[in-house]
Amino acid sequence: MKVHVSAHLNDRSIALIEATLADDDVVFRNRLGSDDEKAASLAEAEVVFGNLHKTQLLAAPRLRWMQLESIGFDHYVALGPDEMPPDLQISNLKGMFAAPVTETAIGGVLTLYRRIDELTRAKDARDWRALELRPQTRIVSGTSSLVLGVGAIGSHCGRVLEGLGSTVTTFGRSKDTADLATFDELDNALRCADLVFVTLPGTPATDRLLDERRLGLMKPHAILANVGRGSVIDEEALVRALTAGTIGGAVVDVTWKEPLPEDHPLWACRNAVITQHTAGGYNDELPDKARLFLDNLALYRSAGEMFNLVDFDKGY
Asked: Rounded distance, CA 86 to CA 83, Å?
């Protein structure tokens, strides 16, 4: 089997793939020199591990399965039949990042709730501000949390929040999986929530879902944490809300443009924690990606039912 690996991997991950697929024809893109070599490898590949650019799919007519190295699939949503190899299946890493993303989102909230942001600035200035900051601290226990998205990340986030003593309400596509499913229900829930966690994918249906009007429904002390996709939030409206103090703060892992431009006003918002799309990261992230790919490849090889296959109609 011809396998083309373009995923970002470390030495441990590469060694694991090489040892497991010793009898297969495995090509690592970063070891190829010229563009012609890379194009030739893609043209022959049956399996790809990595996120090909959509234009590269046209150069892979034999491709039957692509294992993404991400959860996000929005790059491929708008592709037409002429841009996709026939019978192509695509799987993502759904579920793999539930724990680290949740810990980042809640860690960011705790940074603001416990005033660790201000305490860090005070430390750098060697400025003892205990009497000023201690009365400003808050606790998650007793709060009302609204979690947008009921996938692996949203579900895990909800469970952790409940463990911290927060009352959790979920919003999703259907009442079969979420507490709320209509926009009117979402609007009402935004008025009541102390904490709002966004774990939604980037699709046409979620584009700017939290616009200026909906951000304006939030409580003045409410904190918004976005670990889904930057496109879900109107970024300019968020900056205005943070600057004016009409919401209490934000934890921002994903933005419309990445890296976030140096002159972007979000950098200057003191009540924002910017985690720079690191939420899914952890020390064994890359070997775990390789292991997931290899497990799924075994299912593909045996014609078994692979996990995390993307639904093209839903876009995730």
From this structure: 9
If one counts every other C-beta atom within 10 angstroms of the C-beta of residue 297, the result is 21
Closest CA to 208 of 223, 198, 222, 218: 198
CA atoms within 13 A on the CB side of 113: 17
Name the residue with tokens 């563009």. 35
Mention every residue, 6+ apart, whose C-beta is less than 8 A from residue 3: 21, 24, 25, 26, 27, 45, 46, 47, 48, 49, 297
CB 62 within 8 A of CB 276: no
Residue 20: which of 313, 301, 311, 306 has the closest Cα? 301
Other residues' Cβ atoms within 10 Å of the Cβ of residue 110: 18
pLDDT by residue for the chain (316 residues), tens digit each?
999 999 999 999 999 999 999 999 999 999 999 999 999 999 999 999 999 998 899 899 999 999 999 998 877 877 777 778 888 999 999 999 999 999 999 999 999 999 999 999 999 999 999 999 999 999 999 999 999 999 999 999 999 999 999 999 999 999 999 999 999 999 999 999 999 999 999 888 999 999 999 999 999 999 999 999 999 999 999 999 999 999 999 999 999 999 999 999 999 999 999 999 999 999 999 999 999 999 999 999 999 999 999 987 766 6
CA angle 223, 184, 156 (to 5 degrees): 45
260-269, long-range: CB < 8 A, 24+ apart: 265/239, 266/235, 266/238, 266/239, 266/242, 269/239, 269/242, 269/243
What does the angle CA 191 – CA 192 – CA 194 come to, to the nearest 5 degrees?
110
The end-to-end CA distance of the chain, in Å, is: 27
